[in-house]
């Protein structure tokens, strides 16, 4: 019986001009956004790859110079675009494309490329427009029958209200998913085109979108069964959509920024500068901190003069200075990262009443474009920076010619430094970061099922409209 | 039908509608919730403005502190027996290049509370030194990108996105519900024309929804203490009122059609979807298809290559530079300017020369994009209102371009001053620091602000008029029925 009702509902929706128009409109928007984003992402990835090669060539061709001068010459490293970034660009579109790597300074990402417009990405459309489509096409699946008086008729003829509601829900889910099949196929083809597709991430991304679509179908069918008229069902659906998909995410962001205030960029820079000035500059070994280091190393090697040390003191002190400075950066930016994570905890709290927040967090994480992935990339840049500076300072410290005036090294040393390679994290790591969001989607699905159950009970008790009574 | 009679009928219908709306708990609750949300968003906007101003004040304070510290260091650098590093603090070349650098600041307008800045490329503070100016370079941000993606809860969002949905909820059933309840037949049987009936039903809704929205938004601008605060307030309030009118007129159009109330709501929701997301998305897609601006990655690599080329060709670059500036050669020698300073200037010039084509391409693309988006914004009432609010809030492209021009001029003055000062001698006196050029900013004149808001405001009026005229034209189809009813 459920199958027959679902099939009937599917056929009805397929014949419905309103459904065909709205689904067609959404499909066109999705396909246009997807193809445009894919072309854009492909071009950007190529440009970053080319720029990455160009700056590495510049690094190798920098000529002969003192190794520490090379740490100031520095190099750029470019943020790679994940395969799924065209579906959900997350924060990567506007958070900077490259980081300058040099000694003494934690690299700051360069400017971003676009203004944030999350609703215009394929994932943004799925998060906001798809629920709207489901509300607009599904509000009358049960309430329309009630308005026409056919619901009471069906129940009167012995139709099981639970089977009726489940069948209607399945029909709506099937219709919505079938309408989105071309978009899903297009996404799959675009994801599989490049070599080394990350299937697990793609599956995780798809599963989150699917669960969200099913959730809204169930909610809309539930409301349609509970509301007295189709009009009331539509208004309730639109209100729920407006509040949960539009309003709550912004309210949540506002609440998170109030609950966990962040230092301004200048305040952070000033506090870092103050801590660094306490350390002093490794280029000025007369500063107290370095004088102390000097005394320690002289005592350790039982010598009176740095010239008697078994290594070049100038290189050694630069490396110690680098480590002290890096510790300041690690602490300051680590604190900032923790504050970001705490803000996201606040956001997660609001996600219990806003599936869009839960989906957005899951989607961006599976696409590898959320704040956590960016922070991971920043950390890998810092690791590379430490490696670059240590490699070059070690040459200055341990090369026997290092204390000679005009000491310089060349390409062979620059090649030893190598390039920054970011190893993308696994799908499991991405999922672990959004466990709460995944759980929320699951719980919301259960609640939506309960709503459908309530609708079935309501129909069993009062299948007709008030006017019928 | 006489005018007094029409006015009397209109008043009767309007009074009845107001009473009905006030009796409806759902409508009253929605109205209170919306107004409270708007007030809260304005309050949150004020807080954002205060935070931005505090940040700018902090920059000024830090700049001043650095200046004071460097004044002391300068004195040390001038003293007999100063080390090489200490002497650099008294050297005008290094003061201009590094130690004396100051920020050029774009003040945050009080009206900025209306619309949060969503352009992540827009810097409100640019560090000016005698090195090349990097307006397009971003700076370290502490903002959580996850929250940026969610968007700001500002009055622009509440007004442009949520107000139409509230209007929709208030107006979609103005006449259609009467039809569904069967009371339309009775109403058409009265001598009240459909037009008067519709006006009587919808005008009170326009006043109920548009007035508080316009008052709150206008009050934000009026109490901002910005230059031209009244002009900004009037533009804001007017735009919000007309914008409400656009959606009420759209509701009138669907109400006089044959659609039922659910279909009317569907049509209005579809219109909202097109105006809010469809038009901006289409504009983005259209611009992406024609955009020939360079990517940020390309800019980075070109700038990197330019610096490398200029440094590796330093000798040849310096020769070219001196050939172009023979006056520097004699005066520099006379003043004892070290060759490395001339080399630094020469390298900077060469880098700017090499980067100029891509910088021009970027600036041209940005300007063209701003023009294109300004035109595209007129197509949708939502984007037109957002544009008015952006302009009033000081987020418009013209104000940004004016700031960047002012920074470029200041940078030129700064560089010229320090080159001249370096040529005059390699040591500065503490008092000379006060003569260093300061960035001066004058906001746009009233006429410019009025000009920027005129086009989107006019677009809103056109949208409202077109929809109202269409509704009026469709209303005339009801006349035969009305006449028939009158005849009966």
TrEMBL record, chain A:
Transmembrane intervals: 21-39, 124-143, 169-193, 205-227, 234-253
InterPro entries xrefs: DUF3526 (IPR021913)
An example molecular function term from Gene Ontology annotations: ABC-type transporter activity
Protein origin, superkingdom: Bacteria
GO cellular component, one term: plasma membrane
Assigned keywords, A-Z: Membrane, Transmembrane, Transmembrane helix
Family matches, as Pfam families: ABC2_membrane_2, DUF3526
Keyword Transmembrane part of the UniProt annotation: yes
Protein name as it appears in the record: ABC-2 family transporter protein
Origin species: Rohdeia mirabilis
Organism lineage: Bacteria, Pseudomonadati, Planctomycetota, Planctomycetia, Planctomycetia incertae sedis
TrEMBL record, chain B:
Keywords on record: Membrane, Transmembrane, Transmembrane helix
Membrane-spanning intervals of the chain: 28-45, 156-175, 181-199, 230-254, 266-290, 453-473
A molecular-function term among this protein's GO annotations: ABC-type transporter activity
GO cellular component: plasma membrane
Pfam families to which the protein is assigned, alphabetical: ABC2_membrane_2 (PF12679), DUF3526 (PF12040)
PANTHER family: ABC TRANSPORTER PERMEASE
Protein name in the entry: ABC-2 family transporter protein
């Amino acid at each position: 019986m459920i199958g027959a009702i679902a099939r009937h509902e599917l056929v009805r929706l397929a014949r419905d001009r309103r459904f065909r128009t709205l689904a067609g409109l959404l499909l066109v928007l999705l396909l246009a956004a997807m193809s445009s984003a894919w072309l854009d992402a492909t071009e950007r990835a190529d440009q970053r790859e080319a720029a990455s090669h160009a700056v590495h060539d510049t690094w190798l061709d920098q000529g002969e110079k003192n190794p520490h001068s090379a740490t100031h010459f520095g190099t750029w490293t470019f943020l790679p675009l994940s395969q799924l970034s065209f579906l959900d660009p997350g924060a990567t579109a506007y958070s900077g494309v490259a980081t300058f790597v040099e000694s003494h300074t934690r690299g700051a990402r360069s400017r971003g490329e676009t203004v944030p417009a999350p609703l215009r990405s394929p994932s943004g459309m799925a998060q906001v427009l798809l629920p709207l489509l489901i509300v607009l096409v599904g509000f009358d699946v049960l309430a329309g029958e009630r308005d026409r008086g056919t619901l009471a008729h069906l129940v009167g003829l012995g139709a099981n209200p639970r089977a009726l509601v489940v069948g209607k829900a399945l029909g709506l889910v099937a219709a919505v998913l079938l309408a989105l099949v071309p978009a899903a196929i297009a996404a799959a083809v675009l994801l599989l085109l490049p070599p080394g597709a990350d299937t697990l991430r793609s599956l995780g991304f798809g599963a989150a979108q699917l669960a969200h679509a099913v959730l809204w179908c169930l909610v809309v069918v539930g409301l349609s069964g509970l509301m007295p008229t189709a009009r009331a069902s539509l208004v309730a659906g639109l209100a729920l959509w407006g509040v949960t998909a539009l309003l709550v995410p912004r309210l949540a962001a506002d609440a998170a920024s109030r609950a966990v205030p962040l230092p301004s960029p200048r305040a952070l820079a000033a506090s870092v500068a103050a801590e660094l000035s306490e350390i002093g500059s490794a280029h000025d070994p007369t500063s107290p901190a370095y004088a102390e280091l000097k005394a320690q190393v002289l005592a350790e090697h039982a010598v009176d003069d740095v010239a008697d040390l078994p290594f070049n003191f100038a290189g050694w002190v630069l490396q110690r200075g680098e480590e002290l400075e890096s510790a300041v950066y690690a602490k300051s930016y680590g604190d900032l990262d923790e504050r970001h994570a705490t803000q996201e905890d606040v956001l997660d709290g609001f996600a219990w009443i806003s599936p869009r927040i839960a989906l957005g967090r899951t989607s961006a994480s599976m696409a590898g474009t959320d704040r956590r992935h960016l922070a991971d990339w920043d950390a890998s840049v810092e690791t590379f920076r430490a490696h670059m500076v240590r490699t070059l300072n070690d040459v200055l410290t341990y090369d026997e010619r290092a204390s000679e005036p005009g000491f310089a090294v060349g390409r062979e040393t620059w090649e030893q430094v190598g390039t920054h390679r970011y190893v993308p994290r696994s799908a499991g790591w991405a999922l672990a970061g959004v466990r709460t969001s995944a759980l929320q989607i699951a719980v919301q699905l259960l609640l939506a099922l309960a709503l459908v159950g309530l609708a079935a009970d309501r129909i069993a008790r009062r299948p007709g409209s008030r006017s019928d009574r | 039908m006489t005018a007094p009679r029409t006015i009397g009928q209109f008043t009767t219908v309007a009074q009845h509608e107001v009473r009905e709306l006030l009796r409806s708990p759902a409508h009253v609750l929605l109205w209170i919730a919306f107004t409270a949300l708007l007030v809260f968003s304005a309050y949150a906007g004020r807080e954002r403005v205060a935070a931005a101003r505090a940040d700018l004040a902090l920059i000024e304070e830090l700049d001043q502190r650095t200046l004071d510290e460097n004044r002391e260091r300068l004195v040390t650098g001038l003293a007999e027996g100063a080390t090489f590093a200490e002497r650099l603090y008294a050297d005008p070349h290094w003061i201009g290049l590094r130690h004396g650098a100051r920020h050029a600041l774009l003040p945050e307008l009080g009206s900025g509370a209306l619309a949060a800045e969503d352009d992540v490329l827009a810097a409100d503070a640019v560090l000016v030194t005698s090195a090349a100016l990097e307006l397009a370079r971003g700076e370290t941000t502490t903002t959580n990108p996850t929250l940026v993606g969610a968007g700001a809860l500002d009055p622009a969002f509440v007004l442009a996105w949520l107000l139409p949905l509230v209007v929709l909820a208030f107006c979609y059933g103005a006449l259609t519900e009467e039809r569904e309840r069967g009371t339309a037949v009775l109403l058409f049987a009265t001598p009240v024309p459909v037009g008067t009936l519709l006006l009587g039903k919808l005008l009170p809704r326009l006043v109920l929804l548009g007035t508080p929205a316009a008052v709150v938004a206008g009050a934000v601008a009026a109490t901002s203490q910005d230059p031209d605060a009244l002009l900004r307030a009037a533009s804001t309030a007017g735009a919000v009122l007309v914008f409400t009118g656009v959606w009420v007129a759209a509701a009138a159009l669907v109400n006089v059609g044959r659609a039922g109330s659910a279909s009317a709501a569907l049509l209005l929701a579809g219109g909202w979807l097109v105006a809010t997301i469809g038009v901006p998305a289409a504009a983005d897609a259209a611009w992406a298809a024609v955009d020939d601006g360079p990517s940020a990655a390309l800019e980075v690599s070109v700038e990197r290559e330019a610096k490398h080329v200029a440094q590796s060709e330093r000798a040849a670059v310096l020769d070219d530079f001196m050939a172009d500036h023979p006056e520097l050669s004699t005066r520099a020698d006379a003043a004892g300017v070290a060759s490395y300073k001339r080399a630094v200037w020469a390298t900077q010039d060469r880098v700017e020369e090499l980067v100029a084509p891509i910088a021009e391409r970027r600036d041209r693309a940005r300007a063209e994009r701003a023009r294109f988006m300004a035109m595209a914004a007129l197509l949708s009432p939502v984007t037109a209102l957002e544009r008015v609010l952006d302009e009033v809030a000081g987020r418009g492209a013209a104000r940004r371009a004016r700031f960047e021009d002012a920074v470029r001029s200041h940078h030129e003055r700064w560089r010229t001053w320090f080159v001249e000062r370096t040529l005059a001698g390699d040591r500065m006196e503490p008092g000379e620091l006060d003569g260093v050029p300061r960035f001066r900013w004058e906001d746009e004149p009233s006429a410019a602000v009025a000009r920027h808001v005129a086009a989107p405001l006019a677009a809103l009026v056109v949208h409202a008029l077109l929809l109202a005229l269409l509704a009026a034209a469709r209303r005339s189809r009801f006349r035969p029925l009305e006449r028939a009813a009158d005849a009966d």
